[in-house]
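Question (not urgent): is this output format expected?
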Amino acid sequence: MQERGAQSPLAAPRPRWLLVGAVAGIVLIADQATKALALATLDDGNTVELVGSLRFRLVFNRGAAFGLGSRFAPLIALLGVVVVAVLARAGGTLRRPWARISLGLVLGGAVGNLADRLLRSDGGALSGAVVDFIDLQWWPVFNLADTAITVGAVLLAFTAGDDPGPASQASGGDERPDERFDRR
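Got this back:
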């Protein structure tokens, strides 16, 4: 009979980055799909009015957040590459599922916007524009990747500080089942 929380010798440990990667992949696919749809339907200057102040309007953003720093687009993209690398490395150190989900949101959004800079480049490496299309009319135009980054960063601020960090080698690389919902 096994102790509660002990892993079966036959059970392979799940890598902690698997959840981070799955969430990031879902965000990346959804982001690129919505951007492709925006490019296909809004490219001729159309604006789609939805509800209240919400509308879809195509904007190409060469700068950082809110279009700031457009002269430094390659530098901003290079910084994005560094952020993605740091976040990917951090994914393996987080033990709590919500912290990993949060990191996956940020990572997926960062890769989505970085992909735009790579795929839509017309004047050199990493100088492409990010496709933005969600327009509230009282806030800068943004996209699904920006939303994932923002939601993920807020969740990460609330969850990562409570995360115990790297698991011991004896635990097989993942938290015990009874630690998953421990809210210490």
